[in-house]
Specification:
The complex is a heterodimer of chains A (259) and B (445). Chain A has seven helices and eleven strands. By secondary structure, chain A is α+β, with helices and mostly antiparallel strands. In chain A, the strands form four sheets. A four-stranded mixed β-sheet of chain A has the order 9-1-11-10, covered by helices on one side. A three-stranded antiparallel β-sheet of chain A has the order 3-2-4, with helices on one face. In chain A, strands 5-6 form a two-stranded antiparallel sheet. The chains are: A alpha+beta (259), B mainly alpha (445). The interface between A and B is large, with 47 and 42 residues. Chain B: Keywords: Cell membrane, Membrane, Transmembrane, Transmembrane helix.
């Protein structure tokens, strides 16, 4: 009798636990797929509701490397003043006559970039402003273990600094080097397209301050916006297309030397 | 009665620390505690001032901590794997080694994850990992895998301990304080070594030994995926998971040999841990050094031959700035053990231990070369030219915490040895019983 009862109990225990484990397993397999289906639906819905999809155009041919955008960004977004912490920065590319490429970005370009290569050695030189590319398939969003990094409905990749645990995994996941650890908050930090400004109808600080209109900000869904016009008039390219991240920052005049 | 007498003999022989601590034990505990205390102070500094007092910067966001993490988890994984294999095939010489292997497994899975916590910038928000986990992030997979592995290893280790706890409980003249007698009684979970109990325990241990192998492979594969699923040059490679599996085993067997050597030497167990154990482990190490060398070679060869710009940058860093480290890790660390272990004449206990030391150090360096140079050569050109941002050098904080981790490992090992026999008594008795009458083999299958 006694063993019988124990056996029954045991069988029941195993049945319940198997059901629980199996259920959890099935749920954990189905749940992510559900998310995938949802995100596609969301995009379709957004298009109907005419929600903006923010993007930026960068005209390398117009950039003069004055560094005003970097300075404005630091002031606007409270980016630490020491060099190296940048939400946006400018790289100076100098192709020498012997084929070497020199890439410099002292202090991110604040105070203006100066040429360090003697004139007679230069084949060509140009400036490339860089920032977060706000990828449609962002590797950083994929990597975040707590969901502190997310893509807003209007297409901006943001970091919720109250959720971020500072594991640095997104910083490594980003192939564009756009993220950094903020030494004050100790969490990941990056360009937000000045989300606090664009949600009020203003332009990002770097765009507003640019003296040559090398940065164009706008709504990719609005066919009459400056950005769409810029993309129609110029042959634009994104950085590292082969990584399949589908960025929303488009460059005109992108030379093959740019990394 | 004869068995009982033998049990008492073995209790004294196998647990040199249970009744009376080794004369040096107090000194060791003191030294190790000081090292751990320094580590804790370093941790306090890091917690209050942030990661800026470590060598980790925006490019190299992961440093020595993550390398120690891979190393310790690899140790644990390989311990689980080896012990599982030994139990599964019921290897005749396993009883002298399995206990050591199992202790290594559990201790390193406790020490290892501490290091990944140190990489986190906001430790105060650690619980967010459990409150708001997102299943698509490899880090979440890793947390699930490691916690499962930890629990599985604990259960497995406990199961293998139960018969010995029972023997200790049933040894009335054991000179230990009362609380420890109570502890043994509690931990023995009423195991009386009857036939049915023994059979049942054997069955469970066999099931767990299989599960532990599977869990360990999953945990270590997921750990390799943390790297290989990102787009970084040098990491985004399909070979990472199998490479991690074999290199983990390589370091694990190395550490087992070193600990076997030390225990044999300091606790006079020459009768039970014999040269053939070292030779067996040495041959396993030999095979693993070949496999590890093969995987490493084919990884770097493919990178060099396919000539992608980012990979070439990485190789330039490896063969430029890290030339000597590269030679030490991937040539000396593979070829020296290979050379020592493949020549039968020089395969002595000392030389095998030396080969193991070289293998373990080489492997740690190899992990360093996987993590740091990749982060130093990202896709984008580095914006500022300040050298401390370009190149990673670990600060004393990181070294202090690393050594504290190793010290904690050794300290726990010593304390466990104070509590349990270092060679499984029950298995030795069963083995001897099996030799007396071959009938008992029926238990094993």
């Amino acid at each position: 009798m006694g063993t019988n009862r124990i056996n029954k109990d045991r069988r029941k225990f195993f049945q319940t636990s198997a059901a629980l484990i199996g259920g959890t397993l099935a749920f954990s397999i189905i749940k992510p797929l559900e998310l995938l289906a949802q995100s596609k639906n969301e995009v379709a819905k957004d298009e109907k509701t005419e929600q903006p999809l923010w993007g930026m155009g960068v005209d390398i041919e117009k950039c003069i490397g004055c560094g005003k955008c970097v300075e404005a960004c630091k002031l606007e977004n409270n980016v630490p003043r020491e060099p190296f912490y940048f939400r946006t920065w400018i790289e100076q590319y100098t192709v020498k006559k012997d084929g070497d490429v020199k890439i410099e970005s002292p202090n991110g370009g604040i105070g203006g970039l100066k040429q360090s290569v003697p004139d007679e050695d230069i084949f060509k030189s140009f400036m490339v402003p860089k920032l977060c590319n706000h990828c449609t398939d962002a590797p950083c969003v994929q990597a975040c273990p707590v969901g502190a990094t997310y893509i807003s409905p209007d297409g901006v990749v943001l970091v919720d600094e109250t959720y971020c645990i500072g594991c640095s995994y997104c910083i490594q996941a980003c192939p564009y080097g756009a993220r950094f650890m903020n030494p004050v908050t100790k969490v990941a930090d990056k360009c937000t397209f000045c989300y606090h400004r664009i949600s009020k109808g203003l332009e990002p600080a770097c765009v507003e301050v640019c003296p040559t209109d090398a940065r164009i900000f706008g709504n990719l869904r609005d066919k009459k916006s400056d950005l769409v016009a810029f993309m129609q008039k110029h042959p634009t390219e994104v950085l590292k297309r082969h990584l399949n991240t589908s960025p929303r920052v488009f460059y005109n005049g992108l030379s093959s030397e740019v990394r | 009665m004869n068995t009982n007498k033998r049990k008492r003999e073995l209790v004294t022989e196998f647990s040199p620390m249970i009744e009376k601590p080794h004369p040096m034990l107090k000194l060791w505990i003191l030294v190790l505690s000081v090292i751990i205390a320094i580590g804790l102070y370093a941790f306090y500094l890091q917690f209050t001032q942030g990661h800026q007092i470590t060598g980790m910067r925006d490019n190299v966001v992961w440093g020595v901590y993550i390398i120690n993490f891979i190393f310790f988890v690899g140790l644990s994984y390989s311990g689980a794997f080896i012990s599982g294999i030994l139990h599964f095939f019921n290897t005749p010489w396993k009883s002298s080694v399995t206990r050591i292997v199992e202790i290594i497994t559990v201790l390193s899975i406790i020490v290892g994850p501490i290091f990944i916590l140190l990489c986190i910038g906001r430790l105060d928000r650690l619980y967010y990992l459990f409150m708001y986990p997102r299943i698509q992030s490899p880090i979440t997979w890793d947390i699930i895998a490691i916690i499962t592995d930890l629990v599985g290893c604990f259960i497995y280790l406990f199961l293998t301990f139960v018969p010995d706890f029972a023997i200790l409980r049933d040894t009335p003249d054991l000179k230990v304080p009362n609380w420890r007698k109570k502890l043994y009684r509690f931990l023995a979970i009423n195991y009386r070594d009857t036939d049915s109990q023994r059979q049942r325990l054997h069955k469970i241990t066999r099931i767990m030994s299989k599960m532990v192998i599977a869990m360990a492979i999953v945990a270590y594969t997921v750990l390799a995926w943390i790297f290989s699923l990102t787009l970084q040059p040098g990491w985004n490679s399909t070979i990472f998971a199998p490479d991690f599996i074999f290199s983990g085993l390589y370091s694990g067997v190395g550490v087992i040999i070193i600990i076997m050597f030390l225990i044999r030497k300091y606790f006079k167990l020459e009768k039970y841990i014999v040269q053939s154990h070292f030779v067996m482990a040495g041959i396993v190490l030999l095979v693993l050094s070949l496999l590890f060398g093969y995987f490493t070679f084919s990884d770097y060869f493919a990178k060099w031959f396919s000539h992608k710009p980012a990979d070439i940058n990485l190789l330039n860093t490896l063969f430029g700035r890290y030339f000597w480290q590269f030679i030490l890790a991937n040539y000396i660390g593979v070829l020296v053990p290979l050379f020592i272990l493949s020549i039968k004449k020089i395969r002595t206990i000392k030389s095998i231990t030396f080969a193991a030391v070289v293998a373990v150090l080489g492997l740690w360096l190899n992990r360093y070369l996987i993590v740091v140079p990749t982060l130093e050569t990202p896709y984008v050109p580095i914006q500022d030219t300040r050298p401390e941002y370009l190149h990673y050098t670990a600060t004393w904080i990181e070294w202090a915490l690393s050594f504290a981790g190793v010290a904690a490992f050794i300290l726990f090992f010593l304390l466990i040895m104070r509590l349990v026999p270092i060679i499984s008594i029950s298995e030795t008795i069963q083995h001897e019983r099996g030799q007396n009458s071959k009938q008992d083999e029926s238990y094993n299958y």
